[in-house]
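assembly run, all chains below
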Amino acid sequence: MFTKGIVKTPCKAMIHGLTTAGLGKPDYDLALAQHQGYIKALERCGLEVTVLPADEGFPDSTFIEDAALITPNCAVITNPGAVSRRDEVAAIREAVRQFYPRLEQITPPGTLDAGDVMMVGKHFYIGLSKRTNPEGARQLIAILERHGMTGATVSLETVLHLKTGVTYLEDNTLLATGEFRAKDEFRQFRILEVDEDESYAANSVWVNGYVITPQGFPKTLAKIKSAGYEAIEVDVSEFRKLDGGLSCLSLRF
Ligand code: CIR
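ok done. output:
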């Protein structure tokens, strides 16, 4: 069970955030309203949500998930792979420290975005991506092992982050699209397949038996419901324009 969440209010500069989506610039006021809807969804799942203030110095800082990994046994501040995002971690360190006084840290030359890290109980899958390098993954695995957990790397071909394409929904179940539907590493899981034309919905989040999923992907929504989850749809169209999914918008622990 998760009891807490941390989110970070989008800043006006988000319209200049990193993107490959080709969907145009986000509408800031709409993004703020959507962010409120996202917070409400987390609260409906039973989380007490800490809302950090916007930070105009970092256009992508609302994608707070990339800056820290919170596990059952420890919290790790990352070293984000995109240079423009590196110093986002200072504010996140202060926020996470309120809950975990002793923090672990990924250090150069290691880089790691926690959007590349998928928690399955006490084992963590780490995507090797343009943002997460082998040294960052090596450091994270060493940290996890010191805290009684394990980690292993997964190669990525087409997606930005591991969790762009695959989400763990607990109960031995994955929501997966594209290259993740048939990976050897994931053969032991029940896989709910997300069709290519709904691939954005592969980034959903499990919170306490609920699955929060992006609005507008009816086939995936139906699969989540028929697998027995209570689904909550939220509109995150303005974050999608910056390659951001649902999981990127919060830390949950
Ligand atoms: C970036 O490119 O870093 C942001 N525009 C989007 C980050 C999305 N985060 C995630 O998938 N974990």
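The mean pLDDT is 97.

The first helix runs from residue 28 to 44.

not gonna interpret more than that til we talk
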